[in-house]
């Protein structure tokens, strides 16, 4: 998806209070359709590779690193880092940019965040494309971290994941052991726990892929922020999704991989059947995994974003 426009417009660090400063990068066409990209994790941060999803002639793209993630400061900070703060930050950024409404694109936890944002601020979202939607209820968490969900499909990987923690059927025990491991005074022990956490996630997101170097600050903050949210039941995210989903006004496209073992389609479909609305278009992607490194998912997301742009142009006529 080539573009004659400069890829980069500007970057800013925005003070949102509580000691947090967010990194915001702008790319694409300054006069294009405003589009907010929400990264996953939580704690994943944005990357220049995310721009591959978008036609930069068409969109004015905003890559926002959430609290503690990416280039936002302080790196990996957990204090005042919760769901309501992330949602409030999105609105602060929108107001700072003086944008009446924008499109939203996000995957995994970014899809969850975008879904809830469009519930709370229905007039601020023009249209959205979400993929790998994570349903942050007890079933979703147990599938991901318990011994009766994804663990039954990837038993050897789960054994390695739980080898660092005493065996327990309760995921709270697993979380506490990993929290202790992340804070261990020995640097090699801390890296072992970070690697254990991320290796399990990668085994589900893109089976067979090799874990890249996990000794970087970005890897450590991703693992710590993910655990922070998981151990707090995602700060009430599911209750907001369940209670307010009917309030979404924007055209909403949800793409879920057939082989998404992080956020399995059966949990998403159950949620949408009970709480979804007519403005939501759900598609199961045959052969799709969770990660966009999987070509099936990547191409489907690109197509959905292009269709969103086409629809926006029709509305403007």
Characteristic key phrases:
single chain, 317 residues, alpha/beta, Rossmann fold, 18% strand, globular, Peptidase_S33, hydrolase, aminopeptidase, AB_hydrolase_fold
Description:
The protein is α/β, with parallel strands linked by helices. It has 2 domains: 8-135 and 236-316, Rossmann fold; 139-233, no CATH class. Helix content is 41%, strand content 18%. It is built from 10 helices and 8 strands. Strands 1-2-4-3-5-6-7-8 form an 8-stranded mixed sheet, sandwiched between helices. The two termini are 25 Å apart. 47% of the residues are buried. Pfam families: Abhydrolase_1 (PF00561). One of its GO terms (molecular function) is aminopeptidase activity. One of its GO terms (biological process) is proteolysis.
Terminal-residue CA separation? 25 Å
Strand order of the largest sheet: 1-2-4-3-5-6-7-8
Kindly provide the name of the CATH class of the largest domain.
Answer: Alpha Beta
Mean pLDDT: 94
Portion in strands: 15-25%
Classified in CATH, the superfamily of the largest domain is Alpha/Beta hydrolase fold, catalytic domain
Our count of domains comes out at 2
Secondary-structure class: alpha/beta
Task: Indicate the overall shape.
Answer: globular
Low confidence ranges: none
Taking all Cα atoms into account, the compactness measure Rg is 19 Å
Count every beta strand, where a strand is a DSSP E run of 2 or more residues.
8
Helix content: 40-55%
Count of helix runs: 10
Q: What is the CATH architecture annotation of the largest domain?
A: 3-Layer(aba) Sandwich
H/E series = EEEEHEHEHHHHHHEHEH
Strand count, sense and barrel status of the largest sheet are: 8 strands, mixed
């Amino acid at each position: 998806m080539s573009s004659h426009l400069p890829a980069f417009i500007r970057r800013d660090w925005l003070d949102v209070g509580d000691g947090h400063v967010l990194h915001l990068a702008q790319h694409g066409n300054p006069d294009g359709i405003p589009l907010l990209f929400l990264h996953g994790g939580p704690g994943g941060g944005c990357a220049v590779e995310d721009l591959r999803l978008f036609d930069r002639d068409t969109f004015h793209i905003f890559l926002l690193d959430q609290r503690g993630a990416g280039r936002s400061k302080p790196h990996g900070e957990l204090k005042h880092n919760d769901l309501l703060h992330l949602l409030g930050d999105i609105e602060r950024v929108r107001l700072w940019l003086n944008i009446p409404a924008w499109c939203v694109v996000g995957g995994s936890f970014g899809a969850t965040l975008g879904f809830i944002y469009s519930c709370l601020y229905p007039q601020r979202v023009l249209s959205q494309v979400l993929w790998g939607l994570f349903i942050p209820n007890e079933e979703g968490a147990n599938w991901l971290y318990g011994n009766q969900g994804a663990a039954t499909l990837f038993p050897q990987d789960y054994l390695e994941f739980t080898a660092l923690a005493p065996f327990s059927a309760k995921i709270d025990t697993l979380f506490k052991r990993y929290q202790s491991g992340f804070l261990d005074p020995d640097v090699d022990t801390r890296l072992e726990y970070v690697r254990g956490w991320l290796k399990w996630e990668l085994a589900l997101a893109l089976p067979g892929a090799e874990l890249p170097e996990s000794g970087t600050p970005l890897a450590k903050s991703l693992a710590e922020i993910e655990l922070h949210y998981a151990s707090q039941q995602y700060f009430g995210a599911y209750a907001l999704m369940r209670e307010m989903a009917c309030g979404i006004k924007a055209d909403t496209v949800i793409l879920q991989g057939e082989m998404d073992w992080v956020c399995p389609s059966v949990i998403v479909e159950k949620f949408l059947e009970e709480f979804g609305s007519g403005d939501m278009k759900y598609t199961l992607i045959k052969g799709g995994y969770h990660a966009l490194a999987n070509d099936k998912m990547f191409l489907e997301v690109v197509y959905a974003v292009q269709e969103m742009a086409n629809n926006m142009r029709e509305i403007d006529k």
